[in-house]
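Possible regression after last week's pipeline update?

I re-ran a chain I had predicted before the update to compare outputs. Posting the input and the new output here so someone can diff against the archived version. Not blocking, just want to make sure nothing changed silently.
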Amino acid sequence: RYPTNLRAPGEIESRPSGLHFIPPKGDLPMAAHQHQKVLILDAGAQYAKVIDRKVRELCVESVIKPLDMPVKEIEEGKYTAVIISGGPQSVYGKNAPKYDPKLFECGLPMLGICYGMQLINYVFKGKVETGGTREDGQFSIEIDNSSTLFSGLEKKSTVLLTHGDSVTEVAPGFKEIAKSPSGITAAIEDAKRRVYGVQFHPEVDLSEDGMKMLDNFLKKVAGFKGDFTPKSREEEAIKEIREQVGDNDVLVLVSGGVDSAVCAALLKKAIGPERIYSIHVDHGFMRMDESKTVVKALNDVGLELKVLSVQNEFLKATTKIDGKETPPLEECIRPEWKRKIIGDTFMVVSEKAIKDFKLDVNKVLLAQGTLRPDLIESASTVVSSNAQVIKTHHNDTALVRKLRDMGRIIEPLKDYHKDEVRELGKALGLPEKLVWRHPFPGPGLAIRILCADKPFDISQEEQMKTAKELEAYNKDGIYATLLPTRSVGVQGDARSYKQLCGLSTDKKTPDWKTLFELAKEIPKKVHNVNRVVFVFGDPIKTSKLETITNTLLCQDTCDQLRAADNIVTEQLIKNNLVKKVAQLPVILFPCDFGTTCSCWSL
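New output (post-update):
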């Protein structure tokens, strides 16, 4: 999900007047350092790093900074172009992100995405208004393929639109180069100034020609050479590790997933194995035979691994949130509580491990395989000062941030995305089976078990209202049902924790096209729903389910999910689907869907 209410910042009392660009003469300006860099100015988008990842896939170096970065620093950074991201704030709102007005006088090629387009249009004296029609989902837009931005494309393109505010009057000097099905301006350009804006999100896969559009902007508009390669990034990461570690020892928490394993291997290449102490924490929420698999895989690449079996410590663990003690993990319902308890307990366990190794606590660093997306989801200031918390990553709790501030955390992969980590792992010589393991969160099965002790956390009145709204989608043998639990989602660049809608059908072969259309439509119209799922089996013809299976973290629930997850993994391997399917998380759902057997669903 992306921004919902986008306007231009109200902190700027008046728009700068007399704005003008002076196009450079001759060749496009080249950065003075080894690689040309594009500056991504983050207006608060949870997915600014998706832009970053796509830019890097095109072999262009990118740097993310807050939108209010002073132009003086931009000039000192010798950037070749600027991309302005989307963001969740209202343009005229009190909390709208500030910016340096001189940004729009610096003469660099510029691409504004969603909020970025609206900001560009506003600054250059166009109009941005809240319209009566929201656009959320995939749409086929009409484009002017004579524009350099759309060079090589057909006259229609499918993109992801998700916005409430729109450009209602294109700024002087600009022209409309794309239009949505509802007639709303979907892209603008001033080719002379090399300034472009798109209302949609080219950085996401749902925008089918998005990569081509980004490539056109970077290569044809801004003149990037595309020489930012994986090899050069690995060398830079090794250099940074050596500088940060110095003569200290390093403790590595290895979960068994790709990230922590690559982190350990990269550290080994940078400083050798003698000063690396690798630990695998078995908290009881691992996949089938996880610990055995991890030990063997890392031993094969020359890394010794100590396994800590601390299942009971985790189940009994508590933490403090907003000054109050939480219940033990084994009694927790709220996903955020579970995440924070697990994150803090990881830190406690690591401190104990340091003592067991008899290391000097003042001469050891804690290494983690944290990625950029992990930090974005936790609204870490390492990435962005504007992002809102969606979910707390177990590697980025308040305690981890404190250790980071003390200089005791090293995160060699903090600027990498998952696909880049896989490539790095292969280059470091890790076995393909390990490198291509599906993502598995550090907290493991604990966060893939949806805990519940009662149906619904909304009032009876809200339940009835939502169920009634869903009845409108009962048609052609398809039934929409309000489910009695909530899930974490992202809406408008912000965290949401709302109810699920279950779709079921009495047709032997589901009408997937209609089901997908409903899955897009329902969250837009039914505001208490943030996720739509399909329920296999017999159709559910009631407007809402009233019962749940009481579910907490315990041996039984973990064993049930562990067995189910293993069956899925074996089928992926058997059918050669591990690389073709990016992720297939198996979730234990606390509902029996009316079977009256008091069991779970998957």
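Follow-up from reviewer: compared with the archived run. The first helix runs from residue 48 to 57. Marking as no regression found.
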